Amino acid sequence: MATRLTHSPSSFIRDFLTGSEESMNVFRYLLPVAIVGFAVLLYESRRLQMPHDLRTVAIQAAGESKAEATRTLTDLVNIYPAAMMALGDVRDATSAEAARQQLEAFNPLIEKAQTIWTQVPEPFRQRFRAPAAEAFGKLQSTVDQVVALPGVGEVLKEPAEQLLVRLRPFT
Known about the structure:
Shape: rod-shaped
Oligomer: single chain
Largest sheet: none
Structural class: mainly alpha
Strand content: under 5%
Number of helices: 8
């Protein structure tokens, strides 16, 4: 049950100044609250000095504009499912040719991402590597299945392996 103050604020201050016991009980809790409040303010001020997001650090390190670097890294993440979809539609040599063109279209984006990647701090890379490794494994098994199809391997083997070689450094 909460204790209610029976005094008005002005009488509370007067009682404190005269040394009333009731006002002194309140102030024994004031010191721990002030310490905790100071600690929170100190933590928040340091947190504001640190970058809010590792992507921001990565973008600043890469010397790219934030929007451009974010778009490039997001596109890099989207390459894995897009490549699997392109390969999933392959049934014969004509569909393999269309998939080859799609896989080759990823090369400039991967080259740009590699430029940014080499300048990104290691903590960001570590956050990216685990999901990229999982997606890379799925993409590699899809490539193996599609290249094994008759008439498709001749068309897709080189561009698919080149894509895997270019994506491997991100895992």
